[in-house]
Specification:
The complex is a heterodimer of chains A (310) and B (334).
Chain A (H helix, E strand, L loop, with lengths): L1 H28 L13 H10 L6 H13 L14 H36 L4 H15 L2 H15 L11 H31 L2 H8 L4 H38 L5 H10 L3 H29 L12
Chain B lengths: L2 E14 L2 E14 L3 E5 L6 H9 L7 E10 L2 E2 L5 H5 L6 E4 L13 H12 L4 H14 L5 H4 L9 H13 L5 E5 L7 H18 L2 E6 L2 H7 L2 E6 L2 E7 H6 L4 H8 L39 H5 L4 E3 L5 E3 L5 H12 L1
Parallel strand pairs in B: 3-8, 3-9, 6-7, 7-8
Antiparallel strand pairs in B: 1-2, 1-4, 4-5, 9-10, 10-12, 11-12
Classes of the chains: A mainly alpha (310), B alpha/beta (334).
The structure holds adenosine-5'-triphosphate and magnesium ion.
Chain lengths: 310, 334
Amino acid sequence: MLRYILKRLLIMVITLWIIVTLTFILMVSIPGSPFNSERGTNEAVQANLEAHYNLDEPYVIQYFLYLKSIVTFDFGPSIKQPSQTVNDMLGRGFPISFELGIITIIVAVISGVTLGIFAALKHNKVIDYMAMGFAVLGISIPNFVLATLLIQQLAVNYELFPVARWLSPAHMILPVTALATGPMAIIARLTRSTMLEVLTQDYIKMARAKGLSPWKIVIKHALKNALMPVVTIMGTLLAGILTGTFVIEKIFAVPGMGKYFVESINQRDYPVIMGTTVFYSAFLIIMLFLVDLAYGILDPRIKLHKKGGE
Amino acid sequence: MDKILEVKDLHVTFSTYGGTVKAVRGVNFYLNKGETLAIVGESGCGKSVTSNAIMRLIPEPPGKISNGSIIFKNKELTTLSEKEMRSIRGVDISMIFQDPMTALNPTLTIGTQLMEGLQQHQQITGDQAKSKAIEMMNLVGIPNPAERLKQYPHQFSGGMRQRIVIAMALICKPELLIADEPTTALDVTIQAQILELFNEIQEVTGVSIILITHDLGVVAKIADRIAVMYAGKIIEVGTKREIFYQTQHPYTKGLLHSVPRLDLQGEKLTPIDGTPPDLFSPPQGCPFTARCPLAMEVCDKVYPVTTERSDSHKVDCWMQDDRAKQLLATSAEK
Ligand SMILES: Nc1ncnc2c1ncn2[C@@H]1O[C@H](COP(=O)(O)OP(=O)(O)OP(=O)(O)O)[C@@H](O)[C@H]1O
Ligand SMILES: [Mg+2]
């Protein structure tokens, strides 16, 4: 087990390094610089500024300076807002984005799995058709369209929820709904189809022959097997939700990391680009690792370690 | 002898898009305490449906026990509620399925799966359940039971898994065990071991067994009585001797001639030509008529009356009629 984790950690570091390097290459190859914006800065001043931020150094040196800033996790101040360090921005934005993301995942998983189970148990009945119709809608409507619809109807027309911002639980309902509906629909459909398959398995019949109650059979015997494919696609869903937060945060004026991420790219604010990219990537990589661990725990046939077995 | 189970005029149908499948059409049999009854017959003749009906495990819909009664220890099972039935499943009647590779849940340990039946039906502590489980593992011949309880199904071979399934079925000490082709998925040497295990277990626990199979070799080894099923009906039933040595029904004869036997060396194997009738609209007469070498006009029109050749030996065939026997005798003389 320990060996497996160490190996995975090493692979994670390598993955992160590749991402960082690619980001650096992309960054230096996009035309423009933080200083030659429309305002037309004096050339001498610009040279001075570039020297200050080491932007006049050869790329190789710049690259190593970036690597150093990542290893020490100190990206320095933002170029555009020099009064703030990148770490300040991450510290302020991340908790909010994290909150949005986590609530979304929890809502999507719980409602998706519940919907899927009910649809499977009521196979070919009204509940099943309704749930699956709903799921198809959920999958086909992009989250930004749903977000605008929700704002227009529930916030503007009926004034049930605040239009935007992130201040109270009531503020969270619309952005979370907009972001969670897609993943929820995917999870519901997947849970339903695997559940239907699992319910025809012999071990379910065996469990019935033992005299177990229907709920015990669903919870203990069927659910764990039916959830395995859901865990498998969790990684993809997480990545989707993560990128979804950029858009949703923008639409609902949620002051999360998405704002800094998008703005920094537009403004060529190199330290902020680097900081947010590294942070997002590291976060996603760690989440994927946790998903894999969860999979190994759910399915005993997948061995994370060499010990045991025949 | 005490009858533990009596099935009378059992009818099971399935409603499908194509029409109603009459899978079991008036099955009658009984089972004495401590004996083994084998139900044999071709694929699709309704063996599994009959056994699932006894457990009330027919999926409803599409299935339905449309008529008949199943009396287990003087209790009518067909009218019990699902909840009452749950207190019988696993406790009084247990079932073993064909494929041990799929009958165990891959994500739960053997121990969990062995003990959950006990914990469902009895008020016992975890430790008691565990020692019970170990006792059962010993009974079915699995070495190192305490260790192996913690393992998962994929860590066991096919034969071992079938032993575990048997232990699971027997852990609440049921009085009736229904085994639906318990050895079909196993290789021959393991088959023999598992059959031997059934014999041992019956000696130790006195459990009555219904053994479903299409392997007459299996039947010869462990059955006391044999019921031969064809197209949803039992067409001949008798003791093992009666079925093997005083075979009456042409279908039973056909079955016996289509498997190799050591005591009949030199005789040619003759498979039964043709296929069983369509169960959507089964013939009103004897369903075997179309494949029967002795078929008469009456066979096609009227289902034969049951002839009791002895207390135990019953046959549904018009050839049992005295007039048919006479005709056959005179035609043989010519
Ligand atoms: N769920 C179902 N829906 C429709 N028809 C069914 C269903 N289950 C069984 N049947 C039908 O009932 C008939 C009897 O099936 P059954 O499984 O009892 O056969 P069997 O004798 O056990 O055969 P085998 O030796 O292949 O296991 C078959 O014709 C089958 O098509
Ligand atoms: Mg069968």
